[in-house]
Protein: Threonylcarbamoyl-AMP synthase
Organism: Drosophila yakuba
Amino acid sequence: MRRLQTPLLRLVQAYKHHHTTSRMQHQASELQTPVCPVGDEAALQLARQCLLSGQVIALPTDTVYGLACDANNETAIQRLYEIKGRDEHKPVAICVHNIAALRRFGQAAHLSDELLTRLLPGPLTIVIERTAQLSNRFLNPSTSKIGIRIPDFNFIRDLCAVWHEQPLALTSANRSSAPSSLQVVEFRSLWPQLGAVFDAGQIGLTEERRLASTVIDLATPSYFEIVRAGVALKPTLSLMEEFGIRERKIL
């Protein structure tokens, strides 16, 4: 067994003792995967331990539940693709703590702080050229660009902060082509392959939330391209107009 499994199992026991969701407790015990409430005082430390050991975790964002791992760990990225059942040439995003970190991992000199602070944090993925700080050869090998998120959800941003200000690779918590998840039970089939599951209850009240984040390509100065409409399309387009950023037409 891995060295870090002992504290993980202790957290499972504490969870079983203090919570009363019997069906979920039974599954967590049966699959030996910790299911930890995000409000648990040990949650961030557990998540950090999982990342340090190269594991993939599930956690809530401001749109849907996501799968995350250390973005600069080659083995972890390959594992993330395997769990997701995703083509390695289909990009995944990264999640960072703040705009300074976004600039560290993405080439954003042409994007003003005023624009970025109006767009983020929130349900938006900004696609720009990556910097040399993202050194993982298995992270989106078919493109030089990277999608960057700063979710408006404290747990994942706090995790980025305690994770040495490093990026997390992030994708939705479901098998490729399956619906995204608003509750942890919806991706229970993935639990055995995860280091831990961090539970914030149901994180959306409408099916619209399953559309996930809006993805916008801002790699070309003064131009944008909508890659995915997502849940924040209207306010994003409004800001593009306000800042004089024009839509790039694909011929």
